[in-house]
Amino acid sequence: MRDVLGPATTLGYCTNVHAGVTLDAVRDNLRTHALPVKQQASPDAPMGVGLWFAYAAAAELLEAQHKIKDLRDWMADHGLLAYTLNGFPFGDFHDARVKTRVYEPTWAMRERYDYTLALATILSELLPDDADEGSISTLPLGWPPTAAHQRTDLDQPATLDPEFAKACAARLTDLTHYLARIELDTGKCIHVDIEPEPGCVLDTAAGVVAFFERYLLGTPDDATVRGYLRVCHDVCHSAVMFEPQRAALTTYREAGLGVGKVQLSSAVRVAFDALSAAEGAEALAQLHRFCEDRYQHQTALRYDDGSTAFYADLPDALAAQGASGDNPRGEWRVHFHVPVYLDAFGVIQTTRAEVAECLSLLRSECSDRAVHHYEVETYAWDVLPQDLQRATLADGIAEELAWVRESGATHGAGPR
Question: Which of 220, 270, 300, 325 is placed for a possible disulfide with 332 were both Cys, Cβ 3.0 to 4.6 Å?
Fold first, then answer.
């Protein structure tokens, strides 16, 4: 959907919610799910679709170039807009157990570079004729080794391994030169947007800025780097890290880094200190329902004295709580993408308010560095507790898009 969150914006949903790593699966998912979403959410106008191609599907598209044109034409005929790609999951994102494998290959590895180059080439050919910009979100370098993953202060950036950071920076710099050639040849600016995520090598705005300033900037390539490497701001991720939306967006703006894409997503939140003992026990029982084997659900805790704790996965946090024998304390935030229209369920809350705040801030305070690409990214629909699901996947996604449109209008993010 164009212009619903401001002039020259596109809003859609991310198709990494759909299983399938082949090109045929991508097509089938668009027919089965995206078209019913469009029928509900945008029946009279084109709808943005954030495409996800696993490496196998991307390779298939490049091996037979006519398939890119065929997909482009099919999407145009059915009112679906290609505008952004999710370049984060490389392999089967719906395997029985994904967990930290989703962060492989890292940006220090050639496979990640080759995959992203392929996506950039594909997106430049999928974009509609009247689009001059495309975005690709990518992982925040990788997941750190267990021994190095000791986050005790969430307000400070994680420590970077210099050799790893240099290797990642070298590949990313090479990538910008390729993206510049694409724009020269096609007139399409394809930018790759690094997406900080809790527990990863880069998991806060401050960490992203530190990586850019130490390893990417300060060379004759600065203009190219700033033009083609940007940030994918995932609202859920910053919320889990207790990073205020204003603080994150201001950090990027003051460092001169562009936000190329915003993923509108919401996390699980439990404020245990505000609950009675009975409610706290109920909240713990509800949290156990969010333990599942496929995805990583990083969990951060902040106590009333300002101290913090971080666990790589929700079961780890619950096990530590059980071992302590104490009543839960502080506020817990869990990296589990829940539908953005939910404010609470049972005694558990969500970080939905931060989605509305982010939309408002981008409109009112960041208009000089406008973000054009927005996508709802609730990829965990099929592992949600059953009572939070909708009759069909399309029903749930359409309801999310409707909430975003209404929230954007309420908070001044709609068309002027």
Answer: 270
Residue 234 has pLDDT above 80, yes or no: yes
Tell me the pLDDT of the chain averaged across its residues: 93
Which residues 6+ apart lie within 8 Å of 406 measured at CB? none
Q: Is 270 helix (H, G, I), strand (E, B) or coil?
A: strand
Q: What is the DSSP string of 105-116?
A: S-TTSHHHHHHH
Into which CATH architecture does domain 10-266+351-410 fall? Alpha-Beta Barrel (3.20)
- Count Cα neighbours of 415 within 13 Å in the Cβ-side half-sphere: 9
Closest CA to 355 of 339, 336, 373: 339
What residues pair up with 375 in beta bridges, in sequence order?
12, 263
Those residues whose C-beta lies under 8 Å from the C-beta of residue 347, and which sit 6 or more positions away, are 270, 275, 279, 282, 283, 286
The pLDDT of residue 148 = 46
- Residues 200-221 have a mean pLDDT of 96
**Residues 173, 118 contacting (CB under 8 angstroms):** no
Does 105 sit behind a cis peptide bond, omega within 30 degrees of 0 on the bond before it? yes
CA angle 326, 332, 337 (to 5 degrees): 140
The per-residue pLDDT for range 85-109, each reduced to its tens digit, is 999 999 988 888 889 999 999 999 9
Instruction: Give the C-alpha distances (Å, rounded to integers) separating 307 from 151, 206, 221, 354.
Output: 12, 18, 40, 22
Give which of 148, 110, 121 is closest to 53, Cα–Cα: 121
Structural domain boundaries of the chain? Answer: 10-266+351-410
What is the longest distance spanned by two Cα atoms in the chain? 64
pLDDT in tens, 176-197: 999 999 999 999 999 999 999 9
Asked whether the beta carbons of 42 and 77 are under 8 A apart, the reply is no
Strand partners, 74: none
Closest CA to 33 of 402, 392, 391: 392
DSSP state of 231: E
